Each structure stands twice: as C-alpha cells, then as structure tokens.
Amino acid sequence: MNPAQKDAIRVYHYPLSPFCRKLRLVLAEKKIDFELREERYWERRSEFTIVNPAGTVPMMKMGNSFLSDSQAICEFVEDEFPIPMLIPNDKQRAYEARRLVFWFDDKFNREVTSRLVFERMLRRIQGKGPPDASRVSSALRLLRMHMKYLHYLLDSRRWIAGERMTMADFAAAAHLSCLDYLNDVNWEYSSTIKDWYSTLKSRPAFRPLLSDYIPGVRPPPHYSDLDF
User: Fold this and answer.
1) pTM of the predicted model as reported, rounded to 2 decimal places
2) 45 and 32 in contact (C-beta within 8 Å)?
3) CA–CA separation, 226 vs 228, rounded Å?
4) Which of 1, 89, 202, 217 would bridge with 33, disulfide CB 3.0–4.6 Å?
5) Closest CA to 228 of 193, 189, 187, 192
6) How far apart are alpha carbons 192 and 198 in whole angstroms?
7) Phi, psi torsion values for 64, nearest 5 degrees
8) What's the pLDDT score for residue 1?
9) pLDDT value for 6
10) Which element (helix H / strand E) includes 13?
C-alpha cells in the first residue's frame, strides 16, 4: 500500500467499462491497494444510486466519501498520490495529456467503444435482442479512422501525448483493451500501435485487466498473451 494511503479504497466497476479500466490502471500504476466490487450499473441498484445518483461506473469509495466520474476520480487520485506522475507539471504537456484523455473518453467512446461493447455484449446480457449489424459496421469503420489518428500520434512520439507515459496512454489502452476482448482490433494495421500497446500490456498495472472474464463472452487467445 502507498505509505500516504490512509483510507481503504473500494472501486465499483464493470469489467468491460473503459472508464473503470482507466481508473484501475491509474490506481495500480501508483501501487494503491483497492478492492473491486462489480456493479451491473444498468440495473440501478437502489443502494448504489443513493450514493451515486448518476448511476455510472466507476465509483470510488474512500473512507466515507463516494467519488464519481472517472476523470474527476483520476485527477483526484493524481493530486492525492502524485507519484508516479501521470499528468505532467508542464502546462502545455498537461494540456495535451488531458486533451487526449478527453478524446478517447468522449469521441472514441461515443463512436466506437460504447457501440461495440453494447452491441457485441451488453445487448445480450441486458436481454435486448441480437446486435444491430449496421451499428457494428459503422463502429468498425470509425475504429479504422481512429487507428489512423493513433498511428499518427505514435509515429512522432514515444507515448501518445509526448515523450513520457501519461494518463492519456492509460485512457487509450483502456478503450482498446475492451475492444481487444471482443476481438475487434486489427493489430496488424500498425506495428507502431501494436508495439506501444504491447509495452503497456506488459506493465504490472495491466495484468489484472488481462484476467477479467465476462461469463458467456470469451476473449480471443491473444488477449492475455504478452507476446501477441
């Protein structure tokens, strides 16, 4: 446990939520002990919505406080536990890291992750029938466009926001890891992206994500392979 950590931390999450995965990566990278509690947020369990009216995951309980919104929580964690630093001190670099976190959590999520996770998995789990093929096709087309942008970023930088690993890398990897679980990422598109993701995937903070399992939805064999 981080020596500065005073209160037990519990994270309410759903395994294939990119926002939950981002927070888990940030906490694990900072070597902060936390307990995971799975929450089927769409069921809007009364005990959960009382303390989190938005009904979203992740939610983090720290002492007597309940924190919601993944990026607000991650920024809180960054302030409370600044080592290792995941948001640079330099204002320009901090801006770029935050810009790209927002890019993946907003645009990439709306156009790709949320559509594919819902159509490929949540629609069935929630009893809403078969996937909408047109929405899947549209999301896969947009994924290819986003992969081009990610390749563009990494072609001139060591990490997506610059020369140091930042929270932006964890945000991007969180989304891609969800899609990889569903076998929707073409890793042969760019060796540059694949090498970057492989480096992140090999970090100790990433290992617990590779053990996630959704009943009835089996990931491809390469999902947990560090040398994929």
Assistant:
1) 0.96
2) no
3) 6
4) 1
5) 187
6) 10
7) -100, 10
8) 43
9) 54
10) strand 9-13
Distance CA 83, CA 191 (A): 31
Given this model, what pLDDT does residue 7 score? 75
Reply yes or no on whether the pLDDT at 4 is more than 50. Answer: no
What confidence score (pLDDT) does residue 3 get?
41
Cα(first)–Cα(last) distance of the chain, in Å? 31
* Contact between residue 73 and residue 67 where contact means Cβ atoms under 8 Å apart: yes
pLDDT (average), residues 72-97? 98
Average pLDDT, integer, range 185-189: 97
CA dist list (Å): 113 to 8, 147, 159, 163, 178: 31, 13, 21, 26, 8
The one-letter amino acid code at 26 reads: V
φ, ψ dihedrals at 206, nearest 5°: -85, -20
Measured distance CA(182)–CA(213) in Å, rounded:
11
Reported as a single tens digit per residue, the pLDDT across 113-146 is 999 999 999 999 999 999 999 999 999 999 999 9
In whole angstroms, what is the distance from residue 145 CA to residue 133 CA? 19
Percentage of the chain exceeding pLDDT 70: 97
* Residue 36, H or E segment: strand 35-38
